[in-house]
Amino acid sequence: MGMTVEASRPARSRQAMIFRCNTGCLPFALHAAGRIDRLTPGRTFDICICHGEEPIVVPGSLSPLDVRLIRIDTTGLFTGLRPDPVRTHDVCLRLAVTQALAADYDRIIYLDSDIFVQGGDFTALLGFDPGNHPRGGVRDIIQWRTPGRRAEQFRGLPISVPAFS
């Protein structure tokens, strides 16, 4: 029982924008990654897609994006989460990504694969000094409606953090 990490290539930067997805979400993640890449000419950060056991293949036509594929296996690390293996693995990857990639990256921004990137300065975002707050998050629509709601996946675990994405 332990976490294993396999990557398609070494990290090329100490900063990364990271998506978590499976093959069903891959087109969305690649679309967002492409938008970030086009909005950041000469970018100095990695764009990564983290996944589980299911292999992810980036089409050759998108190879200029230089996406780093990272398989993270969290088997057995998060017992007690919901019994639904697909949802549990998704949550585990979200929780594990900073630990799994700590040797590669000093700064990570985790993004859901279903976002639409309109614009922004991603280099400035990665350079933002969060002070003594190493983690941040934004609410999903469900949490906007019920801000005190505790994520179902976290019930039964000894944490007191409300849900965020």
From TrEMBL:
Transmembrane segments: none annotated. SUPFAM superfamilies: Nucleotide-diphospho-sugar transferases (SSF53448). One of its GO terms (molecular function) is transferase activity. The keyword Transferase applies. InterPro entries: Glyco_trans_8, Nucleotide-diphossugar_trans. It comes from the Bacteria. The keyword DNA-binding does not apply. This is Glycosyl transferase family 8. It comes from Cereibacter johrii.
